[in-house]
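Quick one:
INPUT:
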């Protein structure tokens, strides 16, 4: 009995320890940050302005923050920014791109709206601390595969489990728009019939895909109407089981059977979530945006290589752009060398909100730390500095539906902040301290561990 009681006490102590270190738990203590240049992003930058953090949120900024606090932290000589937000990533879904077992980004099937990315995230990914070490506090994990790939999720880069990390499990549905490019090369001699398609056949195939998208959405609306007629209008959509990751299954209510795939469309049909349109070519973007407007959906353009070419269309329909192509080579022979560098400036001048991303390509997860330098390059080609900052903080937070919590330093928002030795856009600056929800984070990563290991390596011959 004595050993059993000891085991119980040990288990209780362990539970308290885990609870104390769990990411989402807010800290009751108050912290006052002093001496920094505070870049609020939503407003002016403030020199030597205190910031008061309480219960995991920003309680006050400026003179109002001069209140008693449990802890006072000096940030003299540093610049304080809101935590950076990385949209359109595969962070947590890819560890080693060349290893199939370390990739979990793609679902089988062309239409899988019931897929939710958060359930596949690896909370122990070595790439999460790497992104965090350069100022990123949140990221959007995006599914791929097929035409409608499922729902992305917003991750807090701090936590023990996937439930800890997923601060918004469904932040938008991802639609990969059919390509409008045509291969006009002649049929090679001896090519098999199914290995080459004429331009006419390619157009027919593209038109077929476009019709399939419309038919799928029409069926989703029909399902929603039948669901409402069955008296289920107030019943929330089926959700994934957090423990197993399996769907909630087919449930019959009033003789109506809930179908997970159609349930996954409801939040988009009701305009509670945006549709992320993945498109790069100008014709592709025009087609996708026109479709979203016709359907009445909230839309966000992801990729957007040629977005500057159709900037008035995007501005008129208030479609923000998550731009992935600052360092992409000019796609056409007639394009100037700086066509991609200057694209964010042209979009901004047209009235389009531009966020920055490294995309979901093979190095997308490991290259998140480089996103600030894409914004810096755009600034070098005309983008105002404040817009470059907002493209890393406030604008992605808006696109992900979290602008009430993230993206700027304002009272009421999460105490998610990063202190750096200079402008966050400067390649030479160092991230000194970082807080997520009021909890200060370690800036150690595999990179720092390897640096510490090899900096003391003995010289050859010793």
């Amino acid at each position: 009995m004595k050993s059993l009681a000891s085991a119980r006490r040990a288990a209780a102590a362990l539970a308290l320890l885990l609870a104390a270190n769990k990411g989402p738990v807010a800290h009751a203590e108050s912290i006052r940050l002093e001496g920094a240049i505070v870049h609020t992003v939503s407003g002016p930058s403030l020199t030597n302005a205190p910031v008061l953090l309480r219960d995991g949120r920003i309680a006050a900024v400026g003179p109002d923050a001069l209140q008693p606090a449990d802890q006072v932290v000096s940030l003299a000589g540093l610049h304080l920014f809101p935590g950076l937000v990385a949209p359109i990533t595969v962070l947590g879904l890819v560890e080693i791109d060349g290893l199939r077992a370390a990739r979990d980004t793609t679902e089988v099937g062309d239409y899988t709206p019931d897929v939710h990315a958060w359930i596949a995230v690896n909370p122990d990914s070595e790439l999460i601390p790497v992104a965090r070490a350069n100022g990123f506090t949140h990221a959007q994990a995006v599914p791929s595969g097929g035409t409608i790939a499922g729902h992305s999720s917003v991750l807090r880069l701090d936590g023990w489990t996937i439930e800890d990390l997923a601060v918004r499990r469904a932040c938008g549905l991802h639609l990969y728009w059919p390509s409008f490019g045509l291969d006009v090369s002649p049929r090679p001699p001896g090519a098999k019939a199914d290995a080459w398609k004429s331009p006419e056949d390619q157009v027919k195939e593209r038109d077929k895909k476009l019709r399939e998208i419309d038919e799928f959405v029409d069926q989703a609306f029909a399902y929603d109407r039948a669901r409402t007629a069955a008296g289920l209008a107030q019943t929330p959509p089926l959700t994934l089981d957090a423990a197993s990751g399996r769907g909630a299954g087919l449930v019959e209510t009033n003789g109506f059977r809930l179908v997970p795939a159609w349930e996954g469309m409801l939040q988009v049909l009701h305009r509670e979530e945006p549709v992320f349109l993945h498109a790069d070519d100008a014709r592709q973007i025009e087609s996708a945006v026109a479709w979203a407007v016709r359907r009445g959906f909230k839309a966000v353009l992801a990729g957007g290589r040629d977005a500057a070419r159709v900037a008035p269309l995007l501005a008129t329909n208030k479609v923000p752009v998550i731009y992935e192509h600052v360092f992409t080579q000019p796609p056409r022979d007639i394009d100037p060398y700086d066509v991609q560098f200057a694209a964010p400036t042209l979009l901004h001048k047209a009235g389009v909100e531009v966020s920055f991303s490294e995309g979901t390509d093979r190095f997308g997860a490991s290259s998140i730390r480089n996103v600030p330098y894409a914004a810096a390059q755009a600034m070098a080609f005309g983008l105002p500095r404040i817009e470059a900052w907002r493209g890393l903080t406030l604008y992605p937070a808006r696109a992900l539906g979290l602008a009430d919590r993230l993206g700027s330093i304002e009272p009421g928002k999460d105490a998610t902040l990063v202190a750096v030795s200079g402008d966050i856009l400067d390649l030479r600056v160092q991230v000194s301290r970082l807080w997520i929800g009021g909890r200060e984070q370690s800036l150690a990563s595999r990179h720092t561990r390897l640096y510490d290991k090899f900096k003391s390596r003995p010289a050859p011959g010793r």
